[in-house]
Amino acid sequence: MYTAEGKINKNSLIEQYYPLVRRQAFNLKVKLPAGVDVDDLIQAGVEGLLGCVDRFDPESGVAFSTYAHQRIRGAMIDELRSRDWLPRSVRRSGRELEQSIRRLEQQLGRMPEEREIAAELGMELGDYHQLLLDTNNGLILSYDEVVGESPGAESNDAEEAEPEAQIGAAQLKLLLMDAIDSLPEREKLVMTLYYQEELNLKEIGAVLDVTESRVSQLHSQAIKRIRSRVAA
């Protein structure tokens, strides 16, 4: 991967890591609307990979493969954000849903059930399930914004971060952990399989013996519960 001068050979780098770029692109694609072109994700991932050459610090103690994995995914997420492809009406509905969950949790002293959230929104349960599907299209970005990018997350040197930022990041992490832990068991399992085990919706459906659409609804609802708790 290195030239005779000790520099990273970009052609060898792309050849070695291209399978990883493709894998990450297709993993993201199954979570996104049909209009998103996987080739665009791959291109963004390759650009992110090449950006690693200039940014990587061999003295950081982090393996290049780990750093490249993070930068490739980050470049794809940045590409998706730059498009602002989620309709405003869907974003608005998502915010209203989060607010309803927050109100109900305060009133009930527990996580509300689906039928209770639907009633709070003045919807039939079927319409509520469709709303979950509609808003789930943007949740790969929302989860990264809330969970993956806590204050100070971009800093490579914790000592350089402001003390207030370090405290804020630690508090947010604890808050997120508490919110995830408080999820209903099935939604908690969906989150684990989706983000930690990196299964796609179809694979999770096979584990839970439910349809892919139902997994999408559970995923959407879990994210809304987390965001409502964090924003409270």
Quick tags:
mainly alpha; Rna Polymerase Sigma Factor, Chain: A; 72% helix; elongated; Butyryl-CoA Dehydrogenase, subunit A, domain 3; RNA_pol_sigma70_r2; 0% strand; 232 residues; sigma factor activity; RNA_pol_sigma-70_dom; 11 helices
List the helices and strands and how they pair.
Blueprint: H1 10-29, H2 38-55, H3 64-83, H4 88-108, H5 114-120, H6 125-136, H7 139-148, H8 163-181, H9 185-196, H10 201-208, H11 212-231
How would you explain this protein's 3D organization?
- The protein is mainly α and 232 residues long.
- The protein has two domains: 10-83, Rna Polymerase Sigma Factor, Chain: A (Orthogonal Bundle); 88-231, Butyryl-CoA Dehydrogenase, subunit A, domain 3 (Up-down Bundle), CATH 1.20.140.
- Helix content is 72%, strand content 0%.
- The protein is elongated, with a radius of gyration of 20 Å.
- The model is unreliable at 146-167 (pLDDT under 50).
- Keywords: DNA-binding, Sigma factor, Transcription, Transcription regulation.
- Residues 200-226 form the RNA polymerase sigma-70 domain.
